[in-house]
Amino acid sequence: MTRNMIEIEPGRFRESFGRYFEDFEIGHIYEHRPGRSVTQNDNIWFTLLTMNTHPLHFDDEYASKSEFGQALVNSCLTLSMVVGMSVSDVSQKAIGNLGWSDIRLSAPVFVGDTLYAESTVINKRESASRPTQGIVTVQTTGRKADGTTVISFERTVLVPKRGHAIDD
Q1: Which CATH number fits domain 29-160: 3.10.129.10, 3.90.1150.10, 3.90.550.10, 3.40.190.10?
Q2: Are 75 and 104 in contact (CB under 8 A)?
Q3: Alpha-carbon distance 93 to 109, whole Å?
Q4: What is the largest CA-CA distance in the chain?
Q5: Exposed, middle or buried: residue 8 (CB in 10 Å: 0-12, 13-18, 19+)?
Q6: How far apart, in whole angstroms, are the C-alpha atoms of residue 132 and residue 114?
Q7: 56 SS3 class
Q8: b vs e for 69-103, b when ≥16 Cβ sit within 10 Å of the residue's Cβ?
Q9: C-alpha angle with apex 124: 14 to 4, nearest 5 degrees?
Q10: Residue range 23-68, pLDDT digits in tens
């Protein structure tokens, strides 16, 4: 995470987080910390909030009869947590997300699992229509504490150049 201090007026500073377009380099890897342990409440609240009525996420008796033997964490919650972990390194200054692609769910996540994430910069280019901004694409991977990969995806964001962020 890149941390900047901006002098607002003489002797007064504001903390600013995130990266400018110029700070990204293809091949750089950002390990996102802290990790996050998934709780029962996280899974149930997210599942019900999003109106996902599949009992595999909130009915322990039903889930006990599945091939997993227990409730699964909602895959959209896994995606949201891993994206959230990456914000301070990838998109804290972003103007907007331009898209997610190639989302792969490679292993189940259960209540009690702790997730960690990392992102690799795989592409970057200046915006053709916005001279003060650039487009950055990262490959993000989420893993359990034991190293098992549970999710991977690409995310593309529109990022300001130095001196053109909202908090500059």
Answers
A1: 3.10.129.10
A2: no
A3: 30
A4: 65
A5: exposed
A6: 38
A7: helix
A8: eebbbbbebbbebbbebbbbbbbbbbbeeeeeeee
A9: 15
A10: 999 999 999 999 999 999 999 999 989 999 899 999 999 999 999 9
